[in-house]
């Protein structure tokens, strides 16, 4: 029997904590391609969220007490479970989010890889270590360790409903925290499935990972529930609301927000490879990717060839929900209006629409948007300045890579970006100066698949990091301990110190540090 069947055909009734914190109010999630109901889920109110967090708090103590090895063993069991049921989960992702089954497999595979990395590197990144004591505490030993926060609340989006929350869930669990996860109202079945899978794979720590379902109010209740941290992934406007709510209780926040990522195509770039990457980065997942390519700046030397190549490649794309479709419907129907506004606004400001369009060709109904490429879009247009989150791409001709970098950086966002260049030194220099948390050279999105690399943005793209050692530390507090190994004849931190102690100290400091000019 599939996990979905065990979950009472994904009614959420037996998913995670849901059954034990039942409420009479429910909501449905639907297949964006067909409108069919995927599942019915409880609308958890503040009381239900509070009791879930309380239960997670109790579980957090025993989860932390398992230590790195005990947690690693259980996280390994979880990833084994997910790997064995990969197709089942991919099918659910396809039905509830709309993306092709193959893309769902890619997403889940990435999440499993992160789970493995987090559990296997937690001890090295977070475990107790001795650190050098320095001059003033030479008779002490000093210890540093990274302790869990207790319960971490994870609020996630719908666009990568497995990979994105798992970037927080896996790392928070590996660091010794319990997790309460609030999935998007558009993808609650996937969240409930992940929690039910945890209960099945890790029965002796079942309450360490639980799910609550509902709308924004449920997320806000989680912010107020006294968790040790909120890891939020979503749009910048909602991120501001989440921060304001968390400020009421001084709950720390991790903000993984939207982006307006740019690709730079330099004079000596492999134009065919750059076009292939731009089309994938912009159109896969229907363009509903926080680190998707939204803007391309191509130098005059390659612009015409690049546009021709992108145009040719885009023509082979087809949105749909069948096995041959390259991407699915828009998961959140209201997003279509945002995409339409950006395209129409660009067109009326003089942009050339070379594929897709502003009419029925681009927006054929039933939740689909055709791949749309826009040229000569004025820099002040919404299509350049706001996150579009649809299968669109702007391509702008620039003089050289320096102008490209200036325009790429001229955004309030700063999540990621990519550079195509034939010169390693030049590409690395541009990457370092790109104002973003992550940059791929001669590929797109690759940094997200390297578990050792931190993931996160700057500016309106948020702050804090998931993934890598930084991502593990994000879900901990640093704990500093010193231990006096032997007493010195003179203790500078005592009212009994001799009167000349400070002068002696000043002399020593002068000798050690004073020679540096
Ligand atoms: P939203 O900001 O609309 O929602 C994100 C989550 O917050 C959802 O679970 C939502 O619940 C919840 N929420 C809504 N209102 C509140 C509130 N007042 N208090 C607490 N929680 C609330 O984002 P989307 O789901 O539309 O996701 C798309 C966005 O996510 C894009 O901007 C994208 O760039 C960004 N993103 C960023 C990533 C990153 O790592 N930087 C990765 C992936 C996506 P509900 O759905 O029930 O309203």
UniProtKB/TrEMBL annotation:
rRNA processing keyword on record: no
Keywords tagged on the record: Oxidoreductase
GO terms for biological process, alphabetical: aldehyde metabolic process
Region ranges (Disordered): 1-29
Active site: 256, 290
Domain Aldehyde dehydrogenase: 22-481
UniProt key word Oxidoreductase: yes
Membrane spanning stretches: none
InterPro entries named among the record's database cross-references: Ald_DH/histidinol_DH, Ald_DH_C, Ald_DH_CS_GLU, Ald_DH_N, Aldehyde_DH_dom, Aldehyde_DH_NAD(P)
PROSITE patterns reported for this sequence: ALDEHYDE_DEHYDR_GLU (PS00687)
Similarity section: Belongs to the aldehyde dehydrogenase family.
UniProt protein name: Aldehyde dehydrogenase
Organism field: Blastococcus aurantiacus
């Amino acid at each position: 029997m599939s996990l979905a069947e065990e979950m009472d055909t994904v009614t959420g009734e037996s998913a995670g904590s849901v059954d034990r914190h039942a409420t009479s109010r429910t909501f449905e999630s639907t297949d964006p391609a067909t409108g069919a109901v995927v599942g019915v889920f409880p609308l958890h109110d503040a009381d239900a969220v509070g009791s879930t967090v309380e239960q997670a708090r109790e579980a957090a103590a025993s989860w932390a007490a398992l230590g790195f090895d005990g947690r690693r063993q259980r996280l390994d069991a979880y990833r084994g479970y997910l790997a064995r049921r990969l197709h089942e989960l991919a099918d659910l992702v396809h039905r509830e989010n709309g993306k092709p089954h193959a893309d769902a497999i890619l997403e889940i595979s990435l999440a499993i890889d992160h789970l493995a990395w987090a559990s296997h590197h937690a001890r090295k990144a977070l475990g107790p270590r001795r650190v050098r004591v320095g001059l003033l505490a030479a008779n002490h030993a000093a210890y540093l360790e990274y302790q869990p926060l207790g319960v971490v609340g994870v609020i996630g989006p719908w666009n990568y409903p497995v990979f994105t929350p798992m970037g927080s869930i896996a790392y928070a669990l590996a660091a010794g925290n319990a997790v309460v996860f609030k999935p998007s109202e558009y993808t609650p079945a996937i969240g409930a499935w992940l929690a039910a899978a945890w209960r099945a794979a890790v029965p002796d720590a079942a309450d360490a990972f639980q799910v609550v379902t509902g709308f924004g109010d449920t997320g806000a209740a989680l912010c107020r529930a006294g968790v040790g941290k909120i890891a939020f992934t979503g749009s910048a406007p909602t991120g501001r609301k989440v921060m304001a709510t968390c400020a009421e209780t001084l709950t720390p926040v991790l903000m993984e927000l939207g982006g307006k990522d740019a690709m730079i195509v330099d004079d000596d770039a492999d134009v065919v490879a750059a076009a292939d990457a731009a089309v994938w980065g912009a159109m896969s997942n229907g363009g509903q990717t926080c680190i998707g390519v939204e803007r391309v700046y191509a130098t005059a030397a390659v612009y015409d060839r690049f546009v021709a190549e992108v145009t040719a490649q885009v023509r082979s794309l087809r949105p749909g929900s069948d096995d041959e479709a390259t991407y699915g419907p828009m998961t959140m129907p209201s997003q279509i209006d945002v995409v339409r506004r950006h395209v129409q606004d660009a067109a009326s400001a003089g942009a050339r629409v070379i594929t897709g369009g502003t009419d029925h060709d681009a927006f054929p109904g039933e939740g689909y948007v055709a791949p749309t490429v826009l040229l000569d879009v004025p820099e002040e247009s919404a299509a350049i300045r706001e996150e579009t989150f649809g299968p669109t791409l702007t391509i702008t001709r620039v003089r050289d890579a320096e102008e490209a970098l200036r325009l790429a950086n001229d955004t309030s966002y700063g999540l990621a970006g990519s550079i195509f260049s034939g010169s390693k030194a030049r590409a690395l220099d541009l990457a370092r100066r790109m104002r973003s948390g992550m940059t791929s050279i001669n590929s797109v999105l690759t940094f997200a698949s390297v578990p050792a690399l931190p993931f996160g943005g700057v500016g309106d793209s948020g702050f804090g990091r998931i993934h890598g050692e930084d991502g593990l530390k994000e879900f901990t507090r640093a704990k500093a301990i010193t231990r006096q190994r032997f007493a010195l004849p003179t203790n500078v931190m005592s009212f009994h110190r001799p009167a000349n102690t400070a002068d002696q100290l000043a002399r020593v400091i002068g000798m050690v540090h004073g020679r540096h000019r």
